[in-house]
Amino acid sequence: MVVRGDSSASAHRAMSSAATTSPSVDKVDGFSRKSVRKAKQKRSQSSSQFRSQDKPIELTPLPLLKDVPAQEQPELFLKKLQQCCTVFDFMDTLSDLKMKEYKRSTLNELVDYVTVSRGYLTEQAYPEVVKMVSHNIFRTLPPSDSNEFDPEEDEPTLEASWPHLQLVYEFFIRFLESQEFQPSIAKKYIDQKFVLQLLELFDSEDPRERDYLKTVLHRIYGKFLGLRAFIRKQINNIFLRFVYETEHFNGVAELLEILGSIINGFALPLKAEHKQFLVKVLIPLHTVRSLSLFHAQLAYCIVQFLEKDPTLTEPVIRGLLKFWPKTCSQKEVMYLGELEEILDVIEPTQFVKIQEPLFKQISRCVSSPHFQVAERALYYWNNEYIMSLIEENSSVILPIMFSSLYRISKEHWNPAIVALVYNVLKAFMEMNSTLFDELTASYKSDRQREKKKEKEREELWKKLEDLELKRGLRSDGIIPT
Amino acid sequence: MAGADGDDSLYPIAVLIDELRNEDVQLRLNSIKKLSTIALALGVERTRTELLPFLTDTIYDEDEVLLALAEQLGNFTMLVGGPEYVHCLLPPLESLATVEETVVRDKAVESLRKISQEHSPVDLEVHFEPLVKRLASGDWFTSRTSACGLFSVCYPRVSSTVKAEIRQHFRTLCSDDTPMVRRAAASKLGEFAKVLELDYVKSDIISLFTALASDEQDSVRLLAVEACVSIATLLPQEDLETLVMPTLRQAAEDKSWRVRYMVADKFSELQKAVGPEITKNDLVPAFQNLLKDCEAEVRAAAANKVKEFCENLPEDNREQIIMTHILPCVKELVSDTNQHVKSALASVIMGLSTILGKDNTIEHLLPLFLAQLKDECPEVRLNIISNLDCVNEVIGIRQLSQSLLPAIVELAEDAKWRVRLAIIEYMPLLAGQLGVEFFDEKLNTLCMAWLIDHVYAIREAATCNLMKLVEKFGAEWAQNTIVPKVLGMANDPNYLHRMTTLFCINALSEACGQEITTKQMLPVVLKMSNDQVANVRFNVAKSLQKIGPVLDNNALQTEVKPVLEKLASDQDMDVKYFAQEAISVLPLA
């Protein structure tokens, strides 16, 4: 339909007043907006316990630890751990209320006990602790409420069994941090399989759980040297699957946060394995649609790597350029932000190696019709260190940037961008006035040369296509060879 | 013939390669997409000696370019000189099969599979199979993943020693330590089993299948379920119980809902693959469990399969199994807490009536249909209504009509316009099944009310609906029931309603025929040419163009022509435009 001007506007008012009087149209039009949909969702909590038992659970109450003599405490501690292996169904809010409360208070007691007591950690306690923790935290995560759960828009589904789960995590962390804790004994029980299941839990939609997991994994990485390589490899696998298979994993930011501090501790020179991780895993992570959710942590990891080993700058920047977003301006702004962080720590010798491809991209960003992208790129000229690098290399950079800048100064729709571009042009003029004048003078002839080249290309392809046509006809026997 | 050599002076390879190297990705992409043209210009010899080595060496590019390249190379056999030389294409495709980006790799594998067929058995062993081995033992997971898709295409055409090697490589990849590779292997397990000799299926495949089905990662286990279908089809009935069923039973009870979901989703295929006896003894209880699963996703997937599962039950005791085992679960699903489960069930439940026959339907299914027709979720009601035809065949729709009406009325006034739209689409079907009397009495008012809905899409669909109703009930019915109401809206104070009159006329004129159009509709249209809203006037011009072919020449010349001429000199440019268009299209001169 043709978009109409004033006449239809007044008519439209007539329509809306008429609409309220007709019987079938007086209901609100429920365009399925997300906010509406969310309000209707009843289940904001979920939990997945397959085949939880139908019978009510009975636990025999045990005396408090502080009420028994010290020599009996280790024995009672084990008994309590065993009781806490029982898992309750929290989706049924009415079942086993008394026993749920009993387990909650027992867990609380255990948390206090491992924090303050001494001499409780007998060798027999280790397997029981790990068993209790495993029984409680390891489970298949429930399906996400909405198929296209968008972590930026949707509220996360919270874990229903959190009242118990939180205490179990709390207990486990106190256990790992306890002064009596001996990794040499614990490593028999906290093994690869345990870590693997722990890592899978990072996909939990509940941010509270991911936060606890982060601390747990960090402690394990710190205390179990034998598991470090394994943990890094499994995180690799999670990321690769996330990038190339599912694009869905809730705990990427948390894992990157842990990696940030792991990278910080890498010894120099960096092992090939770590470099491969940077180039083959961290850089491709930039391609994921939900980048904004973990970009800060990712950029931190990248910069950590470059501070360790500046020679990695070239592959990193080339990688970013390869994956540069084509259709998502929001991501482009993030890339530009990260690039500035990298340029902040770049060594001049490295800068020279990548300046050409880099500024070709920046020149494209500067002339983006999206003003936020153009603006973000132009802000580089406010950065003193970057300015000094540009100045040193102005004979290379100016010719790359010039035509974009010149064109935008004439035709960008946004006045703020035009003003910024004028400043940049002015800076270039001051840096290298001879070159600037030459480029201004040759601007027109350069454009013409480009047009001519373009035309030649078209002709080449036309000739090639004619050839193809002719051969096609010949092979069909229409034209004799 | 594409084999002739190109003209060197005209197309030096440097120029062409310049094109493939252009700085602008888009231009590079365009050149790659025309790679066959370039090859044609070079001729087969230089394509082999110059172009392919260049392509192999410069594989580092944007994934989009690589994707186009991988696709092109699959159709390149003639351009390198036919099957005799097809192995020249292997080096670039091998590199492409190792890149990270999944779509590129998959395309490279697809092209490799395609050209594998063009290799002679000797070339397959000399060139192709070594490539598969290299990929299978690559360092980085990507090449091993790609290798998984290539075993089955070369296996049938190589010697038995090479076959043994291939089986060994496949075995190794099934226990690879990266889950990505195990997933790739698991997803190709069924395909690979199909090309193996039966003895090896029993000795090799079953152990791999069992291992993958108990992998520590559920993403691997669920792929084994898919393979289960192919494997079970290959084995003789007497071996199924010992070789397949233990694993399948375990999958149906897996602790991960994703695996159980997969079992539910593939249930009909599994059922066909294992045959009637095992279905009766094993799958019926498994299916019951899936229908009662604790995760809604699993229940919904199983609910979707209820009809197919029942249909495929062995006929001798189908009815008994359904009545005693399946129906009780179905009854519970009708009042499930999750709307996806209910709506999945509603989309198939009506199909049970044909299987169970008239008496059972009335006694057992009808109460369920009625309950679902009253469900709080509109999608459930819609799904029931959209499948009314199945029930109609068995018990006739009258049984339902009393409950149907309130359900339809409620959907017709639903707050969500998409729901209203959906029910409109079923109106012609309902009208056909309920008959003209019932329709006039109960549904006609609804159909007219939609014409003044405040959402355009609804008004449009309502117009289209009227046309279909007229096609069903005839012109006379239209003249008595619809046309007066439609024409009445021409005087409505709201211009959108006046336009709806015009849209209805556009849709109805043909179905109503010349007489009604000329005598009743045309005068109204012509009168509206004086409307004060320009939108109405240019729609008059459009309507006249539309109904012109239905009118006789006399009416066109004496009535339509003067009005269009007047509109052609309207002060509004759009009115002018559409009037002139109508004048030029209609035979007025």
From TrEMBL, chain A:
Transmembrane segments: none annotated. Residues 34-43 have a biased composition (Basic residues). InterPro entries: ARM-like, ARM-type_fold, PP2A_B56. This is Serine/threonine protein phosphatase 2A regulatory subunit. The gene is ppp2r5eb. Pfam families: B56 (PF01603). Residues 1-54 are annotated as: Disordered. Residues 7-19 have a biased composition (Low complexity). Belongs to the phosphatase 2A regulatory subunit B56 family. It comes from the Eukaryota. The lineage of its organism: Eukaryota, Metazoa, Chordata, Craniata, Vertebrata. One of its GO terms (molecular function) is protein phosphatase activator activity. GO terms for biological process: signal transduction. One of its GO terms (cellular component) is cytosol.
From TrEMBL, chain B:
Belongs to the phosphatase 2A regulatory subunit A family. HEAT repeats lie at residues 12-50, 89-127, 166-204, 205-243, 244-282, 283-320, 326-364, 365-403, 404-442, 482-520, 521-559, 560-589. One of its GO terms (molecular function) is protein phosphatase regulator activity. Residues 276-357 form the Phosphatase PP2A regulatory subunit A/Splicing factor 3B subunit 1-like HEAT repeat domain. GO terms for cellular component: cytosol; nucleus; protein phosphatase type 2A complex. It holds the Pfam family PPP2R1A-like_HEAT. The keyword Repeat applies. The gene is ppp2r1bb. This is Serine/threonine-protein phosphatase 2A 65 kDa regulatory subunit A beta isoform. PANTHER family: PROTEIN PHOSPHATASE 2 (FORMERLY 2A), REGULATORY SUBUNIT A, BETA ISOFORM-RELATED (PTHR10648:SF4), SERINE/THREONINE-PROTEIN PHOSPHATASE PP2A 65 KDA REGULATORY SUBUNIT (PTHR10648). Residues 89-270 form the Phosphatase 2A Regulatory Subunit A helical domain. The keyword Repeat applies. Keywords: Repeat.
